[in-house]
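Hi, here's the filled form for the chain we discussed.

Project: internal
Contact: R.S.
Residues: 123
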Amino acid sequence: TRMGVTFSEGVSRQNMSLERFVEVTSTNAAKIMGMYPQKGVIAPGSDADIVLIDPAFDKTLEMSDFHISDYSIWEGFHAQGWPVTTILRGNVLVEDRELVNDSKYGRLVKRIVESTVLNRPIC
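And the returned structure, exactly as it came back:
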């Protein structure tokens, strides 16, 4: 949901560049969480986890669009662009917005969060 909402609001509505979108959703998050460069960049030695977004996706979201059953604050949100495929270490997990592979490909990534991150305001 975070990726779809950020793409819809940032890229589709506010003309955020795709480079900035990647910084906001991947690179900067990985740096803050102490996982860069293993995460947050496409480079030799980094995890090759990729999300493909369909910029032509245009609809008002319904509960059936989420992987939860009771409530989402995003129900009724008009999305313009949405994640459609997720690839984890070369394995397609989600294709055309449907889970196609529920194998356990995840693995723990040890992280070290710098004290300058821990000791500053979060907002």
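Let me know if anything looks off before we file it.
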